[in-house]
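[09:14] KT: can someone run the structure on this one? pasting the chain below
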Amino acid sequence: MASQNKVVHQDYIARIRYSNQLPPPPNPPKLLDIPGTGLAGGQYTSAAYASRLVREQPLNIEADAELGMPIDLIGIPGIFDGDERAISARPGAQLHPADRALLKPLSTLGKAAAASGGASFLRRTEYTASQATQHFTSSTSKDLLKIRDAKRRKPSLNKEDPINIMRNIIKGFDIAHPKDAYKGEDSQTNLRGAQVTDAELRAWSQPKHPNNPDLKLLDSYPVLPDLEAIPTTGFYMIMKFEGNPLARTDQYDHRLDTAIMRPVIDEEAEAIYQEKLAAWEASDKTKSEPIREYDYDYFIPQDAAAVHGIKRKLDLNDPDNEDPELYTDDMEDGKRAFKFARLRTYETKSQKGDPKEYYNHTLAMALHDPDADVGDVPGVKKRLPKGAYYYPIVQTTAVRPKRNVGRIAYQQEETKIDELNITVADAGEELQAAQLEKRAAIDPTVRTSEVA
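[09:31] RB: done, structure tokens below
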């Protein structure tokens, strides 16, 4: 009976684990400790997050403030003439003996004792297959890293120092206005500019186009602010219409040049704005502050013949702009004025900008040459010298005709103004004081000259 039983052979499988003792990677990745708060806080989507991360995590290389590439190319000889030898690598450069160690292959780096103890028949990998926690360690001593960090901060302190940055900014003004350059000792109110090189002086006196050196400079305009044209608000706005406010004709209607946009406060729109403002105040303020939206009543002159008189009244170069005969309409009290009729009401479709930042959105620039624009006309005043004058535009608003809906529109029609009687006069003391403050923000000497 025993001989009839089948013999079953079973192989015994023994699992043997071999450790793969390999050296750590020559350039281990740097693990950053970033809190996993997700997108709820909004810190990962803000522009300041990357800048803060760069400041907290120093570079692992020895680099200057410009990362080895000079950004200011004016002082480099021949750079604008197409000669790039000054910034190109020298052919056939000899290797310094002290730099030969930097050209070693990666296979020769690391711990030699650990590399020789590995098993030859295992697949090469950079990580061990053990159950222990995997981590990366640098072969560089911590004391050596501290010394390297101290050496790294010294050269970057010179160019990133705020005083040095201010000196280089002042240097640009010293090149443009050498007579006004400050040559005394540094103080809390005055600071000397950085040293000006001969190449920078030649680049200013004999400018060349960076791409086409054959071009010749015909004329230049100094960039200046038009202080007298700054309004009481300190800025201008651009209004864009969906279509022509007036009926289309073959000729241009000059009443559009003297039209008036009168803002009207809408209670419903004001409530929506207050809700948006409260939500913005409670947020992290990474987004721009909401802008108040208005409705606008659009007024145009009743008589097209009044446009010429309106422009003359507003022209400071006109010697007869104070003539009362320029007005076209008589008032009930015996005075004269310009009559404007309301055409329609517009509502805000979209708008962009920041009323608190005057020079970060748009700048309008006008080239003015009094000899070419005005000439020697008897009795005509030259208000401005030659220059390119800029005007801050903080907001661009697109408007469209407002629809009349239900009882709310009927109530608004009862409170609307259908006609304006406009007279041109000098601003009061309060408006002049507000305008003076806006001018003094650009040129502080305006306040002292007005007081004197």
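[09:33] KT: thanks! The longest helix spans residues 142-160.
[09:34] RB: yep, looked fine to me
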